[in-house]
């Protein structure tokens, strides 16, 4: 496998309230022919009404959802990322977890819970440990973060300091005034300030913002979806290229020039 490029597929699709249907959607929606396929946050089961209890839908990392994810990854000979609620030490507050299965295996428990814009995610979920999770996929170092983590630049920098060259951001970015502007601006800023690729996949409109996108290390948008809708999944594909990454870090050596 070539390490000079990494073929990405971002599956902008809505998860519903039936975990069985969401599991079945993995195989139906995951495309072949890519090195990394990424589904949104909370794909195993949507959050439901704001503030509702999601603990009955929490699963272990070897439960039905992660097992199906591994099967889909194996069938496609790829690596797949998707979000789920994972059982924690508190039966009423699971983790909001990204599961990675296939050629790479990992899990990342969301660190920054969405206590913002009128929401209080921490009432229903437990924050994960503050530790960067970076996995190797096709010779590339891929860092993981989830939705609200995007608003904390120091967290992305932690991932980059741990070697990340591509940042993957599954999300369920709630729709509302200025929210698409914030999403696009922050994704672009994280790419520029860290000279990394950023690949972000969100659940679609109307509840969420969609606009799944890949941004290159100089802030150019390589591919982007629109808001989408719940009934029509969209797959955004892009190829990240090491020559582009290396060139960006010569042009803009901000990581090397840091003084803090």
TrEMBL record:
<dbReference type="GO" id="GO:0016787">
    <property type="term" value="F:hydrolase activity"/>
</dbReference>
<dbReference type="Pfam" id="PF00795">
    <property type="entry name" value="CN_hydrolase"/>
</dbReference>
<keyword id="KW-0378">Hydrolase</keyword>
<feature type="domain" description="CN hydrolase">
    <location>
        <begin position="6"/>
        <end position="242"/>
    </location>
</feature>
<dbReference type="InterPro" id="IPR036526">
    <property type="entry name" value="C-N_Hydrolase_sf"/>
</dbReference>
<comment type="similarity">
    <text>Belongs to the carbon-nitrogen hydrolase superfamily. NIT1/NIT2 family.</text>
</comment>
<dbReference type="InterPro" id="IPR003010">
    <property type="entry name" value="C-N_Hydrolase"/>
</dbReference>
<dbReference type="InterPro" id="IPR001110">
    <property type="entry name" value="UPF0012_CS"/>
</dbReference>
<protein>
    <submittedName>
        <fullName>Carbon-nitrogen hydrolase family protein</fullName>
    </submittedName>
</protein>
């Amino acid at each position: 496998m070539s390490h000079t490029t990494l073929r990405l597929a971002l599956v902008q699709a809505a998860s519903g309230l039936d975990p069985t249907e969401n599991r079945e959607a993995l195989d139906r929606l995951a495309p072949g022919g890519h090195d990394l396929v990424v589904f949104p946050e909370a794909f195993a089961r949507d959050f439901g009404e704001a503030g509702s209890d999601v603990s009955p839908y929490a699963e272990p990392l070897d439960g039905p959802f992660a097992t199906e994810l591994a099967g889909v990854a194996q069938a496609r000979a790829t690596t797949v990322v998707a979000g789920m609620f994972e059982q924690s030490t508190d039966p009423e507050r699971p983790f909001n977890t990204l599961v990675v299965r296939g050629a790479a295996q990992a899990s990342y428990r969301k660190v920054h819970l969405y206590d913002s814009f009128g929401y209080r995610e921490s009432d229903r979920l437990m924050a994960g440990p503050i530790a960067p999770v970076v996995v190797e996929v096709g010779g590339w170092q891929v860092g993981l973060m989830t939705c609200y983590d995007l608003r904390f630049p120091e967290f992305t920098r932690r991932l980059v300091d741990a070697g990340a060259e591509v940042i993957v951001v599954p999300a369920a970015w709630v729709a509302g005034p200025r929210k698409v502007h914030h999403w696009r601006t922050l994704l672009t800023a994280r790419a520029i300030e860290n000279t990394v690729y950023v690949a972000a996949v969100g659940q679609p409109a109307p509840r969420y913002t969609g606009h799944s996108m890949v941004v290159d290390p100089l802030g150019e948008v390589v591919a982007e979806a629109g808001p989408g809708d719940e009934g029509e999944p969209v797959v955004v594909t892009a190829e990240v290229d090491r020559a582009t990454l290396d060139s960006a870090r010569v042009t803009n050596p901000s990581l090397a020039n840091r003084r803090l």
